[in-house]
Each structure stands twice: as structure tokens, then as C-alpha cells.
Amino acid sequence: MDQFIEQIITGLSIGSILLLVALGLSIIYGSMGIINLAHGEFVMLGAYAAWVFHTYLGLGLLASLVPIFLVVAAFGWVIERFVLSLLNNRPLDTILATWGVGIMLQQAVRLMVGSELRYVQLPPALSGSMEVFGLSVSSYRVFLFLVSIALFGATWLLMNRTTVGMKLRAIIQDRSVAASFGVNAKRVYALTFAYGAGLAGLAGALVSPLKSVSPDMGTGYVVDAFMVVVLGGVQSLAGTVASAFILGELSGGIAFLQNDTVAKALVLLAIIVLIRFRPEGLFTARVRA
Q1: Coiled-coil regions in this chain (predicted)?
Q2: Each residue of 147-173: pLDDT tens digit?
Q3: How far apart are CA 26 and CA 42, in angstroms?
Q4: Which of 63, 87, 275 minimizes the C-alpha distance to 193?
């Protein structure tokens, strides 16, 4: 029973990290239809920003989360306004453009700070452990779980209870009709992309104490993020949450029985089979005709 509970907790920990990384991509891909191959590099920028704030400004991780979100969001806004907004209704071109942006970001980081592995210190207040169902669990992983749920809640409120979210949903339904009511689609898209990029940067900062920081660290994260979004279903935030924790539990359980490599291979195979029979994902948002 203790091993079972331990694996459940491990799966929740993995799922919370997947949710942190995938939430920003879910907003960008589900709302704007942009396949953002630079999403992993936004995660990487957030991790490096955490290292820079700590190394050169003396800010702890918790104190630097809001500045990191704003910095990466501002960068995402610039990318959308000056690159992606010029490629409307050209999805293949946006794939190529975001891929190129990702490569440029990797090389820029290598030129500015080098390719050496960097490390971010755990917040002292969260460096210990706590008891959960009689088991010792890292306090920081519990913190990540709570933050991932809080960010999902904030994103849901933004999309469903604010003017920006209402305008974005109107544009998704019919851009020309929304424009006739005075909705500025370019501005809404820029803000949406900035928010998604900021979430990716926040995810990178939050996972940086658990992983070494390097220019190519985002490659693996972008694959995981797309798996979560595709499994959950496009335009379904609830599906993103459910799929993140489903994949987390599957990965944790298989890794316990075999190893991490087998877990990744089997999870990817399961997603491929699922897409074959249910290409819209597990949780498809219902759209009124």
C-alpha cells in the first residue's frame, strides 16, 4: 500500500510539471492555432532568467517569479507582433518561423552565457520535506502541484470571465464578425501569445531547481507539452489538466515497473494509438453549431 501511494504521489508530481509546461502551449495552440515550436525555448528562457536573477541580482526563485513572467511575456509579445502577425492564415509558415526563432534563441544563449550547465537553488523555505499520507514528500514538489492548479484556475478565469477572454473566444468563432463589433484581433492575439509565453517562462523557472539549465533543455519539454495538449484535446483547458495527470501517472507507474526510457516509449505509443482512433483527443471542447 505504501508503494502504491508513493507511485500516486510521484505521478501527481510528474503531472504537475507537465501541466506547468503545457498550459501556455494549450492557450497558444488551442486559441490561436499556432504550432509554436519555440515553446521549449520560452521554457528555457524562464529557467535562465531564474539563474540570472539569482546570480547577478541576488533574488530568490520565489521573489523572481513575477519578473520572469513579465520578461518572457514581453518577449513573446514582440515575437507575435513582428513575426507571427505577418503570417496570418499560413500555418506552415508559422511552424517554420517558430522553429527558426527557437534555434536563434538557443544560439543567442550560447553566445551570451555559454553552453555550461547552470543550476538554480531551491528556495530555502521549500528545501525540506513534509508528510503526506504517512510518506515523506519533497515540499517543493507539493508546491509545484499547488502552483500548477492555481495557474490553471487563473487561466480558466482569464479565458471565461474576462473581457479579453470573451474577445478571444469571439475571434475563434468568427474573426470577421468579431471585427465588425470593434474587436481588435491583432491586439488580442498578441496579448494571448504573450500570456502563453509568460506561462512557459514561469514553468521553466519553476522546474529549474529540479533540472540542470542548458540552452537545449527546452527540446524535451516541447515534445511533452504537445503530447499533453494533443491527448487532452484542442481548446480544452480541463482536458489539458486531465491529460497532464493521466500521463504523469502512466509515466510514474511504468518507470517504477521498468525504467524511464521504457515509460516514455510506451506512453508515446499509447498516444499514437489513441490519436489513430480518437484524433480530436480525449476531452474535446463542444462548439455550438
Answers
A1: none
A2: 999 999 999 998 888 888 888 888 877
A3: 14
A4: 87
Q: Return the domain boundaries, the chain.
A: 1-288
Largest CA distance in the chain: 60
> Which of 42, 49, 53, 52 has the alpha carbon at shortest distance from 106?
42
Cell of 201: 517562462
Q: Tell whether the torsion through CA atoms of 130, 132, 135 and 139 is positive or negative.
A: negative
Strand partners, 131: 136
Radius of gyration of the chain (CA): 19
CB 120 within 8 A of CB 209: yes
From the list 148, 282, 275, 134, the residue with the least C-alpha distance to 207 is 148
What's the half-sphere exposure (Cβ side, CA atoms, 13 Å) at 214? Answer: 10
pTM of the model: 0.90
pLDDT tens sequence across 79-122: 999 999 888 778 788 999 999 999 999 999 999 998 899 999 99
Predicted confidence at residue 287, as pLDDT, reads 44
Q: Return the residue matching grid coordinates 523572481.
A: 64
